[in-house]
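Cross-check.
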Amino acid sequence: MARRSELKGIANSLNGSFISRNNDFDGYWSIGLLKLFAIERGFTSVGVSLPLQQPDTNFSLINDIAQRYTVILADLLRKQHLPNSWVSNVSITVDFFAIVAGSQLSTYPASGTPFKCLCQIIDDNGWLYTSISYGRCKPHSAVRELRSSRRMTR
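Predicted model, tokenized:
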């Protein structure tokens, strides 16, 4: 029998996938691209809501992430035999200026500055399921980074 508490595991899965190096856009790590996006616009954080409410025609990275993670969310719900109607809101927010305790990060400061990724799922009863992950990243640089060979051609 399906239980709403399984939404906590789905939040953890979405968050783990989101900060993974396998989360790329056009062959480059999405977190680095999001950091560059935030820096260029003076933002401290970037958030994505699932499903995407209003497509942003100016920046395809946000649209691509929202579309891919909407599919991933639907797949996770299906695998856990949870009805879509139990989920009323899902958001993923990456804070690039988060205060992070040293014990929550890798000890490789050369890999960039700390970030915090927060995934929140609100169910149809108003309960909140949260997952928080920490990491390090640098802003995207095509000069410094190698493009993934598995990138999709557009």
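The chain has a mean pLDDT of 85. The chain has three helices and six strands. Passed to J.P. for a second look.
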